[in-house]
Design goal:
Shape: globular
Strand content: under 5%
Structural class: mainly alpha
Distance between the termini: 58 Å
Bound molecules: zinc ion
Helix content: 40-55%
Oligomer: single chain
Radius of gyration: 21 Å
Number of strands: 0
Largest sheet: none
Length: 311
């Protein structure tokens, strides 16, 4: 069974979560759910589920080939087996997710998850339709080579995604000592932000420790309210347009540039351009910091005024 097949068991809990969040949203007048975006999220989730029934998965074939040539015969009954699978999966999930942001070919699928400009539990299940073209799941292959069976990897991955569903909300604030250790709604809001300082941060699934280890952890700041969505949004609530938006951008770029730039346009960072004037995360962050440096004095004065007002 696929990861998304296992997620179907979680559907009743998920439906209750959405109902409660929707009710609170109405009661407090928060407008956490807009009609067009919610319909788009539901259709994208259903479309993704239907596509996953197609029995064509090159990644699956490679996972099984790696497992057939496994390096270790791991004891499935050992006390450390499940913790080792959990930690191993979390490590490779971090890289799967980070590369899904840093390699445009993978981003073309993953950007669908980031296309929504509001945050709610329903957005958690906005998964891309083209995972079998992007094949970012290849990143997990070393786990099979180490001796973890593909079925166990898929089940652990399903638990990982189930955990992440409650992170997609504006209703839960910071969680004190848990911040920076496990993934929280606050950390995941940062992950979904398009603000320069927050871009491409907090990639972990259940844990934040690999983000801290590899320098991609950023806590949510009160002075930088999160803006959700993509740097270049599709501007559409049509699910098919959303699902193929970045693939369309890729095709346009390939048409406009010479073949020698194609490898970088396909596998370089999203936003890369041959003239060096692209809007990659690194470039946007640098521009933002330069701008902030120039206005540094004003910013400190404003911060001073704010702390005076607070005291
Ligand atoms: Zn992401
Ligand atoms: Zn998310």
């Amino acid at each position: 069974m696929s990861v998304h097949g296992y997620l179907m068991f979680f559907l009743p809990v998920f439906a209750v979560m959405i109902a409660v969040e929707f009710w609170i949203s109405r009661k407090r007048g928060l407008r956490l759910y807009t009609k067009d975006q919610s319909i788009a999220s539901v259709v994208i989730a259903i479309g993704q589920r239907l596509i996953s029934f197609v029995p064509l998965s090159l990644v699956g074939v490679l996972w099984y080939a790696a497992y057939d040539n496994k390096l270790f015969d791991l004891s499935k009954d050992a006390w450390w087996y499940i913790p080792a699978l959990f930690l191993g999966l979390e490590f490779f999930y971090y890289w799967f997710h980070r590369l899904s942001h840093e390699v445009r070919w993978f981003w073309a699928t993953h950007s669908v998850h980031h296309s929504i400009e509001e945050m709610n539990f329903l957005a958690a299940y906005r998964f891309g339709w083209t995972g079998r073209i992007s094949m970012a799941s290849l990143v997990y292959t070393p786990l099979c080579l180490l001796g973890f069976p593909p079925t166990h990897i898929v089940i652990m991955l399903a638990f990982n995604l189930m955990y992440q569903s409650w992170l997609h909300t504006n209703l839960i604030g910071k969680l004190g000592p848990l911040e920076g250790i496990v993934n929280t709604p606050s950390a995941h809001r940062v992950h979904h932000a398009k603000n320069a300082d927050y871009l491409d941060r907090n990639h972990g699934g259940v844990l934040m420790i690999f983000d801290r280890m590899f320098g991609t952890y950023v806590p949510e700041r009160e002075d930088i309210p999160v803006e959700y969505g993509l740097i270049k949004p599709s501007g559409s609530t049509n699910p098919v347009r959303i699902a193929f938006h970045e693939w369309g951008n890729i095709i346009n770029d390939l048409k406009q540039h010479s073949v020698r730039h194609w490898p970088a346009l396909l596998f370089g960072p999203p936003g890369w351009a041959p003239n060096g004037e692209g809007s990659t995360s690194a470039a946007l962050r640098a521009q933002y910091r330069e701008g902030r440096g120039a206005g540094g004095a004003n910013e400190s004065a404003a911060l001073g005024a704010r702390s005076t007002a607070a005291s």
